[in-house]
Amino acid sequence: MQRTGDGLLLSATDLVAFLECEHLSALDLRVTTGQEVIKQTRTDSTELVARKGSEHEQRYLESLISKPLDIVTIPSSIDGAAAASEAAAATEAAMRAGTDVIYQAALADGAWRGYADFLERVAKPSPAFGDWSYEVVDTKLARRSKPEFIVQLCLYSDLLARLQGLQPEHMHIVLGTGERESFRLQEFAAFYRRLLGRYEGRLAEEFAGTYPEPVAHCDLCRYSEHCKARWLADDYLTLILGVGRTRAIRLRQGGITTGAQLALAQPASRPRRIGEKAFEGLREQARLQVHERSTGEQTYGLLAPEEGRGFERLPQPRPGDLYFDMEGDPFYDGEGLEYLFGVSRLQDGEVAFRAFWAHDRAEEKRAFEEFIDFVMAARAADPELHVYHYAAYERSALKHLMGRHGTREEEVDELLREKVLVDLLDVTRQAMRTSKPSNSLKDVEAFYMREREQEVTEAGDSIVRFEEWLETGEQALLDAIEAYNEVDCLSTLKLHSWLLERRGEAKREFGVELRWRAPPEPYEQSPESKAIQDEVARLEASLLVGLPEDVAAWSEDERGRWLMAQLLNYHRREEKPAWWAYFARLEQSPEELVDDPEAIGNLAPDPESEPVADERSFIYTLRFPEQEHKLSPGGDIVDPVSEKDVDVAEIDDARGILRMRRAQNRAEEPLPAALIPGGPYRTTEQRGALRRLARATVASSIDGPGDFRALRDMLRRRPPRVAGVAPGPPLIARSPEIEQLKQLAERLDESCLFIQGPPGSGKSWTGGQLVVHLIGRGARVGVAATSHKAIHNLLEEVEDAASDQGVMFEGWKKSSGGNPESEFTSKLKGPLITNEPKLENFPPPDHVRLVAGTAWLFAPETMDSTLDYVVIDEAGQVSIADALAIGTAARNVILLGDPLQLAQVSQGTHPDGAGASVLEHLLGDGATIPPGLGVFLDHTRRMHPDVCAFISEVVYENRLEALDECAHQRINAPGALTGTGLRFIPTDHEGNTRSSVEEAEAIATAVAGLDGASVTLADGKTRRLKHDDVMVVTPYNAQVRCLTEHLPVGVRIGTVDKFQGQEAQIVFFSMATSSDADVPRNVEFLYSRNRLNVAVSRARCLAVLVCSPRLLDLKPRTVEQARLVNALCRFVEIAQGVGI
Q1: Are residues 623 and 550 in the same domain?
Q2: Residue 332 to residue 330: CA distance in whole angstroms
Q3: Which of 48, 575, 761, 906 sits CB 3.0–4.6 Å from 680 for a disulfide?
Q4: Left, alpha or beta for 925 (phi > 0: left; psi -120 to 50: alpha)?
Q5: Alpha helices for 716-787 (secondary structure H)
Q6: Structure confidence at residue 493 (pLDDT)
Q7: Diameter of the chain by CA atoms?
Q8: What mean pLDDT do residues 789-815 have?
């Protein structure tokens, strides 16, 4: 932002600042216009970054000069409106002349200015220039693209579009590594347009009424000290430890607006949505902080000891104990980089420090290995030592790294299993409260260390310095980070000593004996497990022999060999987080489990219900507060106190009621106060199948004839091998007919065929037709999916097709005793498919031509190559590892599914690509399958063209169309909910995370307005609109409960995953969360493009988005997050607004 005689000049930097914090823009305006003078901070390397950036820019320019290109340089000009206009005019003249490359291009429109490093001519006609147009190329020192780069490119592309009369299709970044990345402007344009409109609107109001709300950018902001002073002056509530954004809102709604008021608050003033125990803790914390703020005396208060918590989490000290701290850059490469592992220990009375550095992904692996080897060597010298750290970051990072790199997995597993890692933050916050505003190590260390004097003093500073190093390469920046890390390790050591002193104080104060944390039970690996592990290691080594060190140089065959090696440990990596979570939950209180999105906490017997006798059992009714969970009746559910299985008969989230069944002879046992998921399912057979595939890959090579050839094709993404069809050209014409698909499937030659079925495209119907056709041609066919429900859905289509075509056969569905959901119920009078519960009867006799089940049926060795085909439905939810395990049963594999609807859920961290679904693996970076690699079902039979157009643009690369008859569909109602297409009901609310009464009330009003409405169907007939024609979809169970309380009976309400495969005339999508700051899990969950796709595409006539407008104003932390919020912005951009 610059001030000139003609007014303000604006740039992309101003847009990025506004995106980070509206108050930042307000301060910029005040400083620029001279209304206020504010002391600002700036980094020492600003000039260095600029110089290094210019050098990188010049290198790229020189690379262009070496080519036969016409290059024009626009002369640099001093700042100012007149000079900028002259440069813009010179740029336009060069464009009209058709110059190949324009360097330092000046773009201007109104107050906006942009200086693109390069404009490159492309062979796409434009209204202004005729046969050509231009696209923006910018050089960046960074090693990976960032959201702020995207905003800048969007502004430049927008200014360019206004000049040439055509929106550029792509925009490009040349990174500091020399890599060039290209982006489709359409994937970000709606997000940019909304940002630009908001900025210009607020600028016109001079950003009136902003307040410095704490945001992620605060740690990096040049005005941070100014805002902190404002918070202190205002006694801002979030300065009180434990009062986050949501609680601050609820406290203010209850009349408590400052920390001092909270310190003096009485129990009766507790807001309804804050629990009694939590409110008392906040009051006490406020008293301590207000006391230090007013007197300068720092204090702490010990908490009453609880068994297994606080000081009882400390193991007995050992002379060889280690003190560990990590530094990571969460922004590196969109996935983060753990770049420094620091560790200290006492040696001969002195503190010795060692640092393990990483500067890129390959070095991250090496540094991780060296650090783990260092710890294991120390343990060999002292097996009872522990590794102390502060907060969960280090433990989580080690788990993540062992999976990401597929190395040191046994060693990390041993450290976790034997509880070698000790988190001193858990000890501190469970044992005491302090008068400090946070539990950060820097704040707590005020009790045992003097104030730091190093150049880097906070974690945010270290990230900034590392980012600067990535751009400049200045060693002094790394030296400052290492010095900071060393002090962190020293502080952790001193904290341990201080906590041991406080432990003695607690024993005296409370008159109790505190125990040291007990060592874990000894673990011994079985000989069978050791033999399997040794074989896996041998197979991995054989598969990896001869692979080039440069990953970028790998062929698809080499990539396939590498992937096969990584998949051998896929199921082990998947089950580890489940076991870690299971054991962690055993140590959590019922109150803590309320916040666990998979468990149910704070269960209590229903005072209004008595146990009901049910044969030899009692049915008990319990109540629970509103919360997220993933438990379901009949599932593997455990009482975390007794670790006994619990038979849950019913869970009613809308009423907060759970019913459980227990044997009458256990009537004296206490009822559970919480329930958690059990451990992971055994995957022994799947692992065995992958080992057999690996043996075949080693024996036959990945591309030779032999066993499991279709699966080896799948590993290396080979086009389908079809008799009589050469690889490369499209397998089938656009808008494929079913007879074409039948012929394609029949002629598969030991290969894999992917049929991508977008919403409403008839994927399951197509699958049924193919299965029956193949059986009719004498083939033996398997049907598989991840869930029995999906299998049964396809089997119904199979029986329907067989009945229509007069094809008779016998099929078996593998069911499980005691699990009614696994049993298939035929709708035919004479069923073709029956249930077979005994696994030992598989493979079945030859006269059984169809077998159906999950991976546990197809993976055993006895099933190897016993089928001609296996059809895997909902393959977007099947991992590449499980697809391969299933595929060992067949010569050919047909994959039905869509990775852009509900995706596979992976718990583990895997090497690159090894954790993908089989469809993600085949698609790579694309959204739709190319015509030469598979079949895309390009017509939907469900959505009106107005709904389909949005889904096609945002999700399916404009390849999906609606059938002509879908255009007849419409809602006939008074008001805005008439007609077809998209509607948006903006609903303001604040502080909501997983539920919103405001949205529920808005939807209830909208549904009430549909009374008397009618719907015109695809066949042109009109009938009355019923309640079950309306579907309400939401991401959260808590919002399901809220909606159920407000909507009439008959309206279908549920989470997104519940409604996949279903449809309705009108679909409401309630997002529930108030803003990106209130997102309870992660941005990717709430803003998931897959979830938006499933929700909107359920609609035949109308799709209605109901959400807080502030969700559209997300500050993306990655380029992918920018894509996600763009989809939401595009919906609103297209939709008709509805006032409720």
Answers
A1: yes
A2: 6
A3: 575
A4: alpha
A5: 738-746, 763-776
A6: 98
A7: 92
A8: 97
Q: Are residues 910 and 954 in the same domain?
A: no
- The whole-angstrom separation of Cα 660 and Cα 652 is 12
Least confident range of 431-445, 515-529, 854-868: 515-529
Q: Are residues 800 and 869 in the same domain?
A: yes
Task: To the nearest 10°, report the CA torsion of 556, 561, 567, 568.
Answer: 170
- Distance from chain centroid for Cα 617: 42
Q: Return d(Cα 592, Cα 277) in angstroms, integer.
A: 12
Within a domain: 698: no
Any idea what the Cα angle at residue 343 is, between residues 339 and 347, rounded to 5°?
155
Angle at CA 1085, nearest 5°, toward 185 and 1054?
Answer: 120
Residue 582 CA to residue 576 CA, distance in Å, equals 10
Give the C-alpha separation, 977 to 15, whole Å. Answer: 35
Q: Which two tokens stand for residue 809?
A: 């056969």
The top-scoring range by mean pLDDT among 52-61, 63-72, 80-89 is 63-72
> Which two tokens mark 189?
């344009």
In what helix (H) or strand (E) does residue 962 lie, and over which residues does it extend? strand 961-962
Same domain membership, residue 969 and residue 1075:
yes
Q: pTM score, two decimals?
A: 0.85
462-495 in b/e form (b: 16+ CB < 10 A) is: bbbbbbbbbbbebeebbebbbbbbbbbbbbbbbb
What pLDDT shows up at residue 334?
62
Task: Of 286, 287, 298, 329, give the one whose Cα is nearest residue 451.
Answer: 298
If asked whether residues 662 and 592 sit together in one domain, one would say: yes
Label residue 788 exposed, middle or buried (CB < 10 Å: 0-12, 13-18, 19+): buried
d(CA 642, CA 922): 45
Q: What is the pLDDT of residue 6?
A: 76
Kindly report the backbone phi and psi dihedral angles of residue 215, in degrees, each rounded to the nearest multiple of 5, phi listed first: -135, 175
pLDDT in tens, 164-199: 999 999 999 999 888 899 999 999 999 999 999 999
Mean pLDDT of the chain: 93
168 contacts: CB under 8 Å, gap ≥ 6: 122, 133, 134, 135, 136, 157, 160, 161, 185
Pairing of strands 2-4, 7-9: antiparallel
pLDDT tens-digit series, residues 888-934 = 999 999 999 999 998 877 888 889 899 999 999 999 988 999 999 99
Can you give the residue range of the structural domain that contains 1058? 945-1137
Q: Which helix (H) or strand (E) holds 506?
A: helix 475-510
- 1136's enclosing H/E stretch is strand 1136-1137
Is 44 a residue whose pLDDT tops 50?
A: no
CATH for 239? 1.10.150
Nearest to 1136 by CA among 1025, 1005, 985: 985
